[in-house]
Write a structure and sequence with these properties.
The protein is of the alpha+beta class. The chain has three domains: 84 residues, no CATH class; 100 residues, no CATH class; 75 residues. The protein contains five helices and twelve strands. Helix 4 packs antiparallel against helix 5.
Length: 276
């Protein structure tokens, strides 16, 4: 019986599950089925049989991604249509790797753990928290840089600033960028110590400052709401027991609770606006 060298599969919900679609493509490549065409409208993926290769895939929407790894020479663009691009790792995913799960209370604690893992011969390959995937080799001293991902924009500028500081980009998980120091720092060209664009850093600082006053207001509103709700329940119980004078008090408590709800809602909306 002749084995088919080409096959097609449909996955109509692919766009609502880009991460799952990436994993599906990686699993097919590991089995020797490599993507040769993709019909976006029908969700039809066509594969061709070949040598098994554990490729990595990443979707990029509108040319932006928090994982700047996709814009390094390691990845090649194999598909583009309607603002959606699919990148495939140009170098084969190492077969010798191990995945560990770990949680940290601070970026500094995470950095120290990654450096200790490097001394033991485990080198960071990718991050999907709480999972960390490492390649394995001979232990060495490495300096890791863990920096907050402020924006999905200006990937090229970020990577160039990293290169000038003697840093190699390893991975981005949407919250942080992970880099290692590999060489000498070039002239800073007037840039700040951070890798992010100075305007992005200033925007982040302004958002943080803007959120501080609302943090206290949110606490006051929440405490007031709790107290008003408790007092309302107490007065309703007393009124139900036939005691006089508690109906007006219950109305006042209800008004106080409504005001506190308004305060909490206002703060939540303002904080969300500041984050955008």
């Amino acid at each position: 019986m002749k084995v088919k060298s080409v096959k097609s599969e449909k996955y109509r919900m692919w766009f609502n599950d880009l991460t799952g679609t990436q994993q599906m493509l990686e699993e097919h490549s590991a089995e020797g089925w490599h993507l040769i065409s993709f019909d976006m409208t029908d969700g039809k993926f066509t594969f061709k049989k070949g040598p098994a290769k554990p490729y990595g895939y990443i979707f990029v929407v509108n040319g932006e991604s928090y994982n700047f790894k996709v814009f390094t020479p390691d990845y090649e663009k194999i598909y583009e249509q309607g603002g959606l691009s699919l990148y495939r790792c140009g170098e084969e995913v190492p077969e010798a790797y191990e995945t560990l799960k770990k949680r940290f209370s601070s970026p500094e604690q995470e950095k120290q753990w990654l450096e200790e893992m490097a001394r033991q011969g485990y080198f960071l390959y990718m991050v999907e928290k709480p999972a960390y995937t490492f390649t394995m080799g001979e232990g060495e001293e490495l300096e890791y840089i863990v920096e907050k991902a402020l924006s999905a924009k200006d990937a090229a500028g970020y990577l160039e600033r990293a290169r000038k500081r003697g840093l190699e980009y390893i991975w981005g998980d949407g919250r942080n960028h992970y880099l290692i120091r590999t060489g000498e720092t070039e002239e800073n060209d007037g840039q700040t110590d951070g890798l992010s664009d100075p305007e992005e850093q200033e925007d982040a600082r302004q958002k943080e400052r803007g959120q501080r006053p609302f943090g206290g207001l949110l606490t006051v509103g929440a405490v007031g709401l709790t107290a008003a709700a408790a007092k309302l329940v107490y007065d309703v119980i007393r009124y139900s027991a036939g005691l006089t004078g508690y109906a007006p008090k219950a109305l006042v408590d209800l008004l106080a609770a409504a005001i506190c709800v308004g305060i909490v809602g206002f703060v939540v909306i303002k904080r969300r606006k500041n984050q955008n």
